[in-house]
Amino acid sequence: MADTSTLGATAPLTTADGRPLSAALAQAHAKSRRSAFLLVAPLLIFVLLTFILPIGQLLVRSVSDTDFADNMPNLGAWFDANPAGSEIDESAYAALAADLQAAKTNKTAGKVGERINYDVSGSRSLFTSTARSADKLEPPYEAALLGIKPGWDDPKLWQAMRQASNTLTPNFFLAAVDLQRGPDGGIERAPEERRVYISIFIRTFALSALITCITLLLGYPIAHLLATMPLRYSNILMIMVLLPFWTSLLVRTTSWIVLLQSQGVLNDLLVVAGVITEDGRIRMIYNQIGTVIAMTHILLPFMVLPLYSVMRQIPPSYVRAARSLGATSWTAFRRIYLPQTLPGLAAGALLVFILSVGYYITPALVGGAKGQLISNLIAFHFENANWSMAAAIATILLVAVLILYWVYDRLIGIDNLKLG
Amino acid sequence: MKRILTTTTALMLVTFSAQAEEITVMSWGGAYAESQIEAYHKPFTAQTGITVISVDADNPAVPVQAQVEAGNVSIDVADLEYPDAVRMCDEGLLEPIDAATLPPAPDGTPAVDDFLPGLLLECAVTTITFSTIFAYDTTVFADGPKVIADFFDLEKFPGKRGLGKRPRANLEMALMADGVPAPEVYAVLSTPEGVDRAFAKLDTIKSDVVWWEAGAQPPQLLADGEVAMTTAYNGRIFNAAASEGKPFVVVWDGQIQEYDLWVIPKGAPNKEAAMEFVKFSTDTQRLADQAKYIAYGPARKSSAALIGLYKDGKTEMAPHMPTNPANMTNALGSDFEFWADNNKDLEERFNAWLAK
Questions:
Q1: Is the ipTM of this complex over 0.90?
Q2: Homologous superfamily (CATH) for B132-257+326-355
Q3: Considering CB atoms only, which of A121, A193, A382 is closest to B352?
Q4: Residue A161: what pLDDT?
Q5: Residues B287/B303, Cβ–Cβ less than 8 Å
Q6: In this complex, is the C-beta atom of B208 within 8 Å of any C-beta atom belonging to chain A?
Q7: Which CATH architecture has domain B2-129+260-306?
Q8: Segment A290-330, tens digit of pLDDT
Q9: Are A369 and B354 an interchain contact pair (Cβ–Cβ within 8 Å)?
């Protein structure tokens, strides 16, 4: 047996100038790591500023709304001191009166009223009209306030104000999945006529899946042609794929309106050909059909190009070998060619799906009412300055897409994607 | 080489410092913005030398609110509807405009008395009265609809309908078509049953509706033959008929009258020039001039007498004004208080209804 005891007793290895080798190695590595980091630093800062910060702010906005809490501190303090279910007594009204007087001076009554108006309709004018006479309020405040406007003793109003005085609130997330706070504080479904978000989420994902399938079916043969034709023809075909890609998105979408509208080119052709009657013109725009057609057209290059790049790499000899061994063309395609194109197919499908889930402009222009996707609802809330609601819906969309991405990774494996 | 570089840089700096003053005015686009450019912007630039940049939006209230809340305002003057102006003034998003500084009428009446009542706000000055009406193409219906109930009658007048993609004006028209007299519409709409009734009436035509968002879309939809009848801002239909010769007819029954106002967002970069512009464009002659280019009524009493012909020199404008007595038999003034309070609620309900 070798004498191992002496091995460990030898001195640790050193460099020429006497430093321990491991320390010198670590130092050299650190230097190269630092310079690598400095090279990447600009990109890191860019991603931080344009991606992580805005999304972080979005996440914060979706759970916090400080409009009420900032401007009604006395009421906030009263709510902290008196838990839910406490009697709304003179001290509450006194706090309210003090806050309204401050709101009048600072001109914040409108903003505060607007915030409560989300929950209880009519609150906006309640706050603004009461604030106008706030200076003349004198104790007993309860009688004084109810004298100006009787709506102040509505328990729903007080519940809404209590909830609004918490800066952190799950209400926006609840609303974004068609739930709401019940009168007893529990969670219940939103009334029938207001349920819209869940159905539009489902519609968005369903239509995106449909568009992905259609672009796959249309794009696969095109990519195959591009990859296997002689260079002269495939160049022209490539230009025909790329030229629309480079044309403005708005121009393409509005030209679909001209093509698909009731008195448009396609309907006129069908009437002239006798396929449909003058009264039976097909409605192909301002509905889901319009959304699907226009989005398929716009997202097709995103499917064709990854598939094309992968198909270029596939040697034709494998399929020829399979045919020579007796496989039918269908079997050769199914068992030899298709699996080799799977990385490009996965890349193209992922790209098209993610793009169409978040698409805004095409559904807005050609979708009508039934073809609206979730991003149109997010835009609607942005336009109404309801940033928190828009942030909540956007966060849910982000989480849903991340979950789908994780499932995709488990099924196919992200490392198995190839873009060429 | 170096001398050329320094000379050219110096010349550039001189030209930058000599830049003329300019203001940015945001409006609704299309024929309406063009009428403002002809009646207000060009004369203003001719008189004061300040350039006016005109920008468009589907609803200027949206970008103005976004800019003021973000603290980065690029708009100097914006054209808002009445409920938005009231709401944003209450929220402190607009600069106050002192009505005493507005020019008086030619006969000396001060501005506060010359403007129609209720049209001078703390932060806004009304320019025009406009109406949401419905219109049809005479080549489609030779014997066309006469009352608002005809809009909802798909048997007598088959074809698609165009409606604005917001509850305002649609709910009132639905109730009026369902038989509610104009003075009671807002009382009915304030009750849940009333809202249900309005949506039920809209449900009767929902599958045949094409929804428009920009003011210029309804005349386009009519011209394309995409719809048989559509609601629209009355001036846009008038312009399509008068300047482009389209065979469109406005039905005034059930018109919903509203106002447009000039506001100055808080933190506007060129506030003094903006105030000058507002004062200039709301004087008697200017408001009457705008009526030369589009069929919207001026907000000043003294301007009514000065309304004459359309810019083509032939068409009389008075019969096309929303405030003309002949057009007011079944008119409804939009209740801004109601909409300022209930817009959020009804819009959410409207969106949910649209999506079903």
A1: no
A2: Periplasmic binding protein-like II (3.40.190.10)
A3: A193
A4: 87
A5: yes
A6: no
A7: 3-Layer(aba) Sandwich (3.40)
A8: 999 999 999 999 999 999 999 999 999 999 999 999 999 99
A9: yes
